[in-house]
Design brief:
The protein has 182 residues and is an alpha+beta fold. The chain is built from four helices and six strands, in the order H-E-E-E-E-H-E-E-H-H. Helix 1 packs antiparallel against helix 3 and helix 1 packs parallel to helix 4.
Length: 182
């Protein structure tokens, strides 16, 4: 029961990491860059993908078309204040983001940011592991599980942590390669 719950938590953690690094930009445009930018929509914050259609015009343009023209200014402001570092231009109802090619320095900076993000997720994984090991120790102290069972569970937890770390490493490598080779 504890192990299954831990597996689900680690799967969610690696999925969250993957979704977060999707937003890191490469030279190729993708809607994932702007989908989750929060827009002030009638007094509450909503992801951009909930208030506008987002499309790509190759080679380097993201086109955003609000479903309600009244949100155009809010969307433009959200894009300007986002971490993308891009200036949106408005043409009628549409807002366009032009993605310039990434400089070598910016690529290196993005790679470092992805590494830092991965480390944050690893810290979260270690905290989850430590909490679970504490629960197992409590069960052992209460004589609910045997010593053999305690060691078996700890080994299983370590295997799951190793697998999750490999997944995080692979996701980081994939995104890093995508950035450096774009």
């Amino acid at each position: 029961m504890l192990i299954q719950k831990f597996k689900e938590q680690t799967k969610k953690l690696s999925g969250d990491f993957f979704n977060e690094i999707l937003c890191f930009r490469t030279s190729r445009p993708t809607t994932a860059l702007v989908d989750n930018i929060k827009v002030d929509c009638y007094g509450s914050l909503s992801p951009l993908k909930h208030v506008a259609s987002v499309s790509i015009k190759l080679p380097n343009v993201i086109i955003i078309e609000p479903w309600d023209e009244g949100l155009t200014a809010s969307i433009k402001k959200a894009l300007e204040t986002s971490s993308l570092g891009l200036t949106p231009s408005q043409e009628g109802k549409q807002i366009k983001l032009f993605l310039p090619p990434l400089s070598k320095e910016r690529k290196d900076e993005l790679v470092k940011l992805i590494g830092a993000k991965k480390e944050e997720y690893r810290v979260g994984l270690r905290e989850m592991r430590d909490k679970l090991v504490g629960e197992i120790k409590e069960e052992f102290d209460k004589k609910e599980i045997s010593e053999d069972e305690k060691f078996r569970l700890k080994e299983e937890i370590e295997k799951i942590v190793e697998q999750t770390n490999k997944i995080l490493d692979n996701q980081e490598k994939q995104k890093t390669d995508e950035i450096l080779n774009s």
